[in-house]
Every structure is written in structure tokens, then in C-alpha cells.
Specification:
The structure is a homodimer of 244-residue chains. Chain A is mainly α and 244 residues long. The longest helix of chain A is centred in the C-terminal third of the chain and has 21 residues. The radius of gyration of chain A is 23 Å and the shape is flat. The N terminus of chain A is likely disordered. Chain A binds a DNA duplex (30 and 30 nucleotides) through loops.
Chain lengths: 244, 244
DNA sequence: CCGTAAGGCGTACGCTGTACACTTGTGACG
DNA sequence: CGTCACAAGTGTACAGCGTACGCCTTACGG
């Protein structure tokens, strides 16, 4: 109630308000529907007014990612490297789930902003503090890849448009026919997809527990990191081995 | 020389020609510069003519991905599962390096086409034939994630625009100053980034061997898969353990 | 109180994907 | 060979995008 939106004087725009409104809008409408014009409308302002606060749309997206990063928990102070990494990654994952647009936004960024560099620096710091050589820390961070941000490359999760018009519900017969056709065309996919969902009666896909899959892969990698770390792995020695 | 492009009768358009020209154009211009209009121009045709051969731009991109998939080697016949997967993934990687646009195109696809399903099915088939339970095969494919397509999600590889205007070459003093600033702001990144590039004098980034990083992560995962496979891992048992 | 700079506005341009109605080319069949 | 039907290609048009540029107006420091 500090300022009325009607009447004479309007709330002044600023970068934070622009970024936060953009985040909220992307949360609701999806990233594809977020345009400068739509955002301006949401802020009750003419499109070009935004350009006094962000350089261009790229800068807007960079700013949105920085808002996201601020939501990720800082490194846990007392934890060993493995738990520190694990907790941080899972916290990042939670932030990404609050903001479904973020995966695409992060991936589409061309160059890292300071906030992003800081985020990555803190990861490197955890590994180094845990006794990793810079060499191993380097390769290990590459191996983590996007998982550092809390997502695996899940293709076809269908979350592009939130609440996209679902296809009309199929009759049981149509479902059975579809299943039979899938089974004929892609028997292995059907086998593999139906394995992990006894509890869930749905046809292929969307029956599996994303969180479980994510942690499965994350822990598999962390296990590998730990093993290499313990046995004093170094890339020089591997390259030598490959050459010899 | 079968048909002249000038004179009266023009070469007839068809889906293949559209898709292959689109692929070639994306290879040269980058995916962002590939518009229906630009593609039509390349084919010496009016933009709307394309719509007789592809439903819309989404369909065009789907088709381009299918062209890509056809370039990936089929599973090696005699190999054990581990080599079969490894070879296939590395072949996919080569295809992706020939077509830098493909990573983004694959990631942006909302729903899998038959060609994509077939590709994934063959992966599942390799694991199952190698004696993996459907359960383990499922989780393992999730863990591979995008790596199945030959890419890790490398953020900020700067390959968005091919031959983007490079910043003017910095003087040695400017480079040194920049390095000093990086070292102050992001000491861990500098430590980790400079570790793996004694041969290459460049400042942070782009000095590391992408192929090595990719295989490092891939083999780390394959090692993990192998271990779980040997010890008869099952998700049920893990969940029970977590609960108990 | 006023000058100045920052904030917000309006207009305009070139680009995008694609809907719709039209003409032209081509191959099959009487 | 003539005709007819359908596929292929054209032209125009629209709504939406990011954003360059110039002007007005508001808020604040001297």
C-alpha cells in the first residue's frame, strides 16, 4: 500500500522490479511467451521503457538467471566435499523446479555473467577444499556438466508450454492399440519404460520418478569422483597410458 | 547436371531436398540464422512453397534431426554392450560435431519423432542384450541423458554464432590485468582452469580438450554401470534401503 | 527555483512464422 | 491427343517480435 498504482504518480521502474516480474511471468506463461512487449504490459509500461533498465533481451535473461542463482543455497559450511556438492546440486535442482524456464534459459546463455562465474567458482572451491587436485577438479566439473545446475538433459519432458492443450483422453481400446503398436515398433523402450513403474499404470513415459533418476546419476558420478580421488587419479597418467 | 537450374523447368522440390538444404544452411549460418525465408531463398523458391513439404518450422527441425540420426553408425554387431554403447555414443558425437546446431535443435524438440524413438530403442536393446535388467537399463539410460546424443551440456561454449565477431585482440598488458582480476574474483576457477592446459598458453576457458572431457565422463558412467550390473543392482533394493 | 539527467513514451523498421486464396505445372486416363 | 484433377509453387497479408531514435516529463541536487 505504499504507493497507489492508479492516480497520478506511478511506481518507478528499476532493474530488480523488471527482473522479478520477468521471472514471475516466465513461471506462469513459460519462457516462450515472455516477450519484451508482454513484460512491459505486465509492468504497465511501454515496451521501450524496459530498455532503460536492461540492455536487451539477452541481458534480461542473464538477469533472470541471476535471480535464480540467488535462490540456491550457499555451500553448507561444515560438510565434507561430497555432501557439500550433493546438497548444493540438489538445492539448485529445487530452484530449477520452481522455475521451469530456467533450464532453457541457462543453456541458451552464450557467456557467463559474474553471478554464474561466482557460482561455478564456489563449486571448484568445494572440490579443491576437499583435497582434489586442480586437474581432477577440472575434469570432474566437466563430468558433472549441467547436473551442476540441477538438471539432466531430459529430452522430451514436454514442459515447454505449461498447460499445453492435452490430447483428448483416449479410450481404453485406443490405449491398448497404441501400446501394442509401441510394443511392436519399439519393444526395448517398452520393456525398459514399463520396468520402473509397477505402481503407476500409465503407458510409456512420465511414469518414472525424476528425482530418483537425477540422484541416481548424481550419486553414480560422485561415487566415481570419490574413487578417482582416493586412488590419486591424474589426467597425465591416463593420457600416458593411452599413448603407451 | 541432370537438370538445369535456369531456363524454363525448375528442379522439383521435395522433403529430402528441403531438409538437406536446411541442414547445410544451418551448418554454415548457424541455427539462429536459419529462417523459413532464408531457406526458401536458398532453394530459389517462395517461402510458402516450403509448407507443401514440411508442416511448419517444428516439423522442419524434427526432419533435420532425423537427417542427423541417419549419420550415426548403427550398433556394432559383434561388440559387448559396453563397447557397443561407447562406439555408438562416440559416433553420435562425431555427427554432432559436424552439425553444431544439432545440440540445440535436439534439446528444443518437444516430442520424439519415430526416428528418435528408434534410436533410443536401439540403445535400450544394447543394454538388454548385455544382460541388464529392464530396471537397471532404465536408470542407466536416464543417467546417460544427453550424453547418449554425444554431448554433455557444456554451458558457454560460445558456439552460438559461428564466426561471431571476436573482441579485438588484447594487448599482453590487458591480458595480464584481466588474468589478475579473474584470479582475485574467481581464484578457484583460475586454479582449475589453468591446471589442464600446460600445453596451451591461453587464459581461462577453451584450452581444454573437449573430446577428453567427454570420454572421461562417459567412461566414468560406463564404469559405474558395469559395477552396478555385476553386483545385481536393483532400484527396489535401493529404495528399500533408503526407507529402512 | 531551476537545470539537468534519468525515466518513460511514440513511432517506425525490418524481421519472423504462417494463413488463405490464387495460378501453374504435371502425370493419368479416356 | 485432350482433358481433368491434384500437387506444387506464388502472392498477399497479418500479427507478433526485438529494438533504434527522438521527444516529452518527471524527480532531484545545487
Amino acid at each position: 500500500m505504499s504507493q497507489k498504482t492508479d492516480g497520478r504518480s506511478r511506481v518507478r521502474l528499476n532493474r530488480s522490479r523488471v527482473l522479478e516480474t520477468a521471472v514471475a511471468l516466465a513461471d506462469t506463461l513459460g519462457i516462450d511467451a515472455l516477450s519484451m512487449r508482454r513484460l512491459a504490459q505486465e509492468l504497465d509500461v511501454v515496451p521501450m521503457a524496459l530498455y532503460k533498465h536492461v540492455a536487451d533481451k539477452e541481458d534480461l535473461l542473464d538477469g533472470m538467471v541471476e535471480v535464480l542463482i540467488r535462490e540456491i543455497d550457499p555451500p553448507a559450511p561444515g560438510a565434507d566435499w561430497r555432501n557439500a556438492i550433493r546438497l548444493r546440486v540438489l538445492s539448485a535442482r529445487q530452484a530449477l523446479q520452481r522455475h521451469p524456464w530456467a533450464r532453457q534459459a541457462i543453456e541458451s546463455r552464450a557467456r557467463p555473467t559474474p553471478a554464474v562465474l561466482e557460482y561455478q567458482d564456489s563449486f571448484a572451491g568445494i572440490f579443491l577444499a576437499g583435497g582434489f587436485t586442480p586437474d581432477l577438479a577440472h575434469h570432474v566439473m566437466h563430468a558433472l556438466g549441467g547436473r551442476m545446475w540441477g538438471f539432466t538433459q531430459e529430452l522430451f519432458d514436454g514442459s515447454a508450454a505449461p498447460a499445453a492443450e492435452a490430447p483428448p483422453p483416449l479410450t481404453p481400446e485406443a490405449q491398448a492399440a497404441m501400446f501394442a503398436q509401441m510394443q511392436e515398433l519399439y519393444p526395448n523402450i517398452v520393456t525398459v519404460a514399463t520396468a520402473a513403474q509397477h505402481d503407476d499404470g500409465s503407458v510409456v513415459g512420465h511414469g518414472c520418478d525424476d528425482q530418483f533418476e537425477f540422484e541416481f546419476a548424481l550419486d553414480l558420478l560422485l561415487d566415481g569422483f570419490e574413487r578417482l580421488h582416493r586412488q590419486g587419479w591424474s589426467s597425465a597418467q591416463v593420457r600416458k597410458q593411452a599413448a603407451g
